[in-house]
């Protein structure tokens, strides 16, 4: 009896063990098998990845053809700014009464005539991309800038074959950090435009330029992000809204790469390398390029019109994404908004005509989501005045969509040729007499007479009697010259000139807004 009971216990134990093993194989193993496995079907996010092939495959990417096609069209840009004498901009009449040893001693010690200082000659270098057979070049504005709202005095361009050319500035747009140069010649190698609108994360790209004064250098990486804003272009555009929608890559970029090419595996230009995140001053893992979708429009405007024809919505906004909860509350802006809060609407702008009101939240421009003012500006940057764009906005919890016709921003100086420039600048202006110009040792200029309150000149330190000789480095010998130069300018410009009877030259910033 006991033996039979023993056999029964053994039989039950064996049966239980076998049943457990069977259940584990059927249930537990099957459950864990689907984790990270395509046994039960490929996840939806892998649609189109395998293209009928089984398992993971790795395609070889050949970057040599793209590099060989693009390298000849990427150039080395070198700039030179001559030594400058700075003064404190306070005119001091030359003494003719024999001030004596102490006057001479103080003049020598502090520079004389208000204390001028000498800034030594400055040299810099960057990169650029030839975009036409006849020598048009696109680069960054900061590559050819003199750091004081003007451009370098001398710009030279060296091709990959080491041929060197003098370059002239066709135009520039600080708000997008783009400039266009021109060298004389024909049959230059140039890059074809690619499509930056369809680039994808993980896509291979090449960065080509002249970093750290090295010769042509090619680095490779992948697209890390698109539509990135890092708040860097606002440093150059004190007047215009900055335009940023960078392509972020991990291709190594260093100082000197600015203005160089970002190309796809077909060798097509999809961006201009512009910035790096560099806590140490050198490449730290990420670089940023201006997409060619923005470059094409701005370059075409500069070549065709001499300046960027930028359309405006006619609204003002606050950077809600950069404000604290307390600041949002004080400004009456809802917390956690997903869009651009309209803080004001211009009565004569396109937004007002389309029904946009203060308090609306713009969420999309041409069906592209926008979360900040910079992102919205980047979407508008590819349009001209007169173009219509679809804008979606929230009001009282409901979303609406309207067509807005972009306007030309009021208050610029594009119409100076048909107006009195003196009245626009707020001063009596006249062309300097040729005999006086000869007496002063200059080629010519424009005399500033009576200055009226409220005008742009009244907001500077310019005194009556000042003779304007250059604007942004361009010679001014007459009222006509001044009108022509300012007619293609906006925002801050730099006036240089003299005070007859006083030593030295003087420089003043003038805001045209």
Total DSSP E strands: 29
User: What is the fourth-level CATH superfamily of the largest domain?
Assistant: Trypsin-like serine proteases
Major pleated sheet: 7 strands, antiparallel
CATH topology of the largest domain: Thrombin, subunit H
CATH class of the largest domain, named Mainly Beta
Amino- and carboxy-terminal Cα gap: 111 Å
- Quickly count the helices: 11
Helix/strand/pairing category: alpha+beta
Q: Note the beta-strand portion.
A: 25-35%
Whole-number average pLDDT?
78
Shape, per Cα inertia axes? globular
Query: How many separate domains make up the residues?
Result: 4
Poorly predicted spans: 92-115, 410-419
Proportion of residues in helical segments: 10-25%
With strands numbered from the N-terminus, the spatial order across the biggest sheet is 7-6-1-4-5-9-8
Provide the CATH architecture of the largest domain.
Answer: Beta Barrel
Radius of gyration: 32 Å
Concise account of the structure shown:
This protein is α+β, with helices and mostly antiparallel strands and 513 residues long.
Topology of this structure?
Layout: H1 2-33, H2 64-70, E1 74-81, E2 84-86, H3 101-110, E3 117-119, E4 122-130, E5 136-139, H4 141-144, E6 154-158, E7 164-166, E8 168-173, E9 178-182, E10 204-209, E11 217-228, E12 246-249, E13 261-263, E14 269-276, E15 287-291, H5 292-305, E16 311-312, E17 315-317, H6 325-331, E18 340-345, H7 350-353, E19 361-365, E20 368-369, H8 373-380, E21 388-395, E22 398-405, E23 407-408, H9 421-425, E24 427-431, H10 434-440, E25 446-451, E26 467-471, E27 474-475, H11 479-487, E28 492-498, E29 506-511
Antiparallel strand pairs: 1-4, 1-6, 2-3, 4-5, 5-9, 6-7, 8-9, 10-11, 10-13, 11-12, 12-15, 13-14, 14-15, 16-23, 17-18, 18-19, 19-20, 19-21, 21-22, 24-25, 25-26, 26-27, 26-28, 28-29
């Amino acid at each position: 009896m006991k033996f039979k009971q023993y056999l029964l216990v053994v039989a039950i134990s064996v049966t239980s063990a076998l049943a457990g093993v069977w259940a584990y194989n059927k249930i537990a193993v099957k459950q864990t098998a689907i984790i990270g496995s395509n046994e039960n079907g490929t996840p939806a996010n892998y649609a189109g990845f395998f293209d009928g092939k089984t398992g993971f495959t790795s395609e070889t990417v050949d970057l040599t053809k793209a590099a060989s096609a693009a390298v000849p069209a990427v150039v080395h840009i070198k700039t030179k700014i001559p030594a400058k004498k700075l003064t404190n901009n306070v005119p001091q009449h030359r003494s003719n009464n024999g001030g004596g040893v102490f006057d001479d001693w103080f003049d020598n010690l502090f520079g004389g005539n208000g204390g001028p200082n000498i800034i030594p000659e400055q040299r810099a270098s960057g990169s650029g991309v030839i975009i036409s057979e006849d020598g048009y070049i696109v680069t960054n504005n900061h590559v050819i800038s003199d750091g004081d709202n003007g451009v370098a005095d001398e710009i030279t361009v060296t091709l990959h074959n080491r041929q060197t050319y003098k370059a002239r500035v066709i135009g520039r747009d600080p708000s997008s950090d783009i400039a266009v140069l021109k060298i004389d010649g024909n049959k230059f190698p140039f890059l074809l435009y690619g499509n930056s609108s369809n680039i994808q994360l993980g896509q291979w790209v090449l960065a080509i330029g002249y970093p750290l004064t090295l010769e042509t250098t090619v680095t490779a990486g992948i697209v890390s992000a698109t539509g990135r804003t890092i708040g860097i272009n606002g440093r150059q555009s004190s007047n215009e809204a900055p335009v940023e929608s960078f392509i972020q890559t991990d291709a190594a970029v260093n100082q000197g790469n600015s203005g160089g090419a970002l190309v796809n595996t077909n060798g097509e230009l999809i961006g201009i390398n512009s910035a790096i995140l560099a806590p140490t001053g050198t490449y730290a893992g990420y670089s940023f390029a201006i997409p060619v979708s923005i470059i094409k429009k701005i370059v075409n405007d500069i070549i065709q019109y001499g300046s960027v024809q930028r359309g405006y919505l006619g609204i003002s906004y606050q950077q809600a994404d950069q404000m604290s909860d307390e600041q949002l509350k004080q400004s009456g802006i809802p917390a956690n908004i997903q869009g651009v809060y309209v803080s004001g609407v211009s009565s004569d702008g396109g937004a007002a005509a389309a029904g946009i009101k203060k308090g609306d939240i713009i969420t999309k421009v041409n069906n592209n989501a926008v979360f900040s003012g910079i992102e919205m500006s980047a979407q508008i940057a590819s349009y001209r005045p007169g173009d219509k764009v679809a804008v979606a906005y929230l009001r009282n919890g409901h979303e609406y969509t309207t067509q807005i016709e972009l306007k030309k921003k009021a208050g610029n100086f594009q119409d100076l040729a048909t107006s009195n420039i003196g009245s626009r600048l707020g001063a009596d202006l006249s062309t300097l007499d040729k005999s006086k110009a000869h007496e002063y040792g200059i080629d010519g200029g424009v005399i500033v007479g009576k200055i009226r309150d409220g005008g742009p000149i009244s907001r500077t330190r310019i005194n009556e009697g000042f003779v304007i000789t250059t604007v942004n480095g361009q010679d001014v010998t007459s009222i006509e010259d001044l009108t022509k130069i300012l007619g293609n300018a906006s925002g801050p410009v730099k006036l240089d000139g003299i005070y007859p009877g006083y030593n030295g030259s003087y420089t003043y910033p003038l805001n045209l807004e």
